[in-house]
């Protein structure tokens, strides 16, 4: 059995968001043909997408080709709307969460994750509860809301609610800084995404979030946790040598918290996968792909199956066992 915990959806046919939510400059889908469309943000082209993004028959065919039994389906982060007034973001979340369930149509091979208006923790909790009642299983959140990272009191309150409701959380980097040095070669995705994810794990550790959150919280960081595993030694050294600055609100050294979160396998090569397993442990790494986007892994799970260092039992943990525990199904 293989479970992919990191995929995205772009539903077709959502309403005019300016009319439905208020405001301007919303994302919309320019449909160029039956098999090609472009996500637009206002008048700017953001990302081309194909039928894999909305056609469940195409998704199932790709899952069959890659040997995937279950696929967690999350929003595409450009639709989060965290920079909008909360009232607009609530309407936005409702639209996309409902369209996700309509698109997936109750197919048991798909595990729907919702989005929430994270800039308003009370509204985020309310939308999560509505979605759980409607059929969503988990929630995807961005790694920050403006200048607020995951140790912000409001976001921590939302994560406590996720723990209380038994809701798995996928943290996805988004809204990476741009500029002349980062707008070339997709550098925001190649360097910014790993850095953003690394920063948010550090924030949860040094900001004291893990110290106040229940250990029952099941939270996974996309893209292998960014650069966190590679630089854990540097963080640990700084925590010990510059306690006056680095320790923040954390009660323990960074290595103490390695069993508090999961990461996915979107690292593409055996060497970084070995680093993840050696650093976080074989029980904390889950198969992910970033499907259907071109920077994702295909065939899904190949980095695990061809790793060369994992035993059959360890492979099965990464391919499915850990994911089922993360999803609360074991």
TrEMBL record:
GO terms for molecular function: aminocarboxymuconate-semialdehyde decarboxylase activity; hydrolase activity; metal ion binding. InterPro entries: ACMSD, Amidohydro-rel, Metal_Hydrolase. It is an enzyme of class 4 (lyase). One of its GO terms (cellular component) is cytosol. Its EC number is 4.1.1.45. Keywords: Decarboxylase, Hydrolase, Lyase, Metal-binding, Zinc. Pathway: Secondary metabolite metabolism; quinolate metabolism. Residues 3-328 form the Amidohydrolase-related domain. Pfam families: Amidohydro_2. GO terms for biological process: secondary metabolic process. Belongs to the metallo-dependent hydrolases superfamily. ACMSD family. Monomer. This is 2-amino-3-carboxymuconate-6-semialdehyde decarboxylase. It comes from Kribbella albertanoniae.
């Amino acid at each position: 059995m293989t479970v992919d915990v990191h995929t995205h959806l772009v539903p077709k046919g959502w309403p005019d968001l300016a009319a439905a939510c208020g405001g301007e400059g919303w994302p919309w889908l320019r449909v160029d043909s039956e098999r090609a469309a472009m996500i637009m943000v206002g008048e700017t082209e953001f990302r081309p997408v194909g039928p894999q993004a909305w056609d469940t028959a195409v998704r199932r065919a790709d899952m069959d080709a890659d040997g995937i039994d279950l696929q967690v389906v999350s929003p595409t982060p450009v639709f989060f709307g965290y920079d909008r007034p909360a009232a607009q973001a609530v309407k936005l979340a409702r639209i996309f969460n409902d369209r996700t369930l309509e698109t997936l149509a109750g197919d048991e091979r798909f595990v729907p994750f919702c989005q929430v208006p994270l800039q308003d923790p009370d509204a985020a909790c309310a939308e999560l509860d509505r979605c759980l009642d409607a059929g969503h299983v988990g929630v995807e959140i961005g790694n920050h809301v403006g200048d607020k990272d995951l140790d912000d009191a409001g976001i921590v309150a939302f994560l406590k609610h996720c723990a209380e409701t038994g809701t798995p959380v996928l943290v996805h980097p988004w809204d990476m800084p741009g500029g002349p040095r980062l707008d070339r070669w997709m550098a925001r995705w190649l360097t910014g995404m790993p850095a953003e994810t690394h920063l948010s794990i550090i924030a949860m550790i040094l900001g004291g979030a893990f110290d106040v959150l229940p250990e029952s919280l099941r939270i996974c960081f996309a893209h292998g946790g960014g650069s966190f595993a590679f630089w854990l030694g540097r963080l640990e050294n700084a925590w010990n040598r510059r306690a006056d600055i680095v320790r923040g609100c954390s009660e323990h050294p960074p290595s103490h918290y390695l069993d508090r979160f999961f990461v996915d396998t979107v690292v593409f090569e055996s060497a970084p996968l070995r680093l993840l397993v050696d650093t976080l442990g074989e029980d904390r790494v889950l198969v992910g792909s970033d499907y259907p986007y071109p920077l994702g892994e295909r065939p899904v799970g190949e980095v695990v199956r061809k790793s060369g260092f994992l035993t059959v039992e360890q492979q099965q943990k990464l391919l499915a066992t850990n994911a089922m525990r993360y999803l609360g199904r074991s």
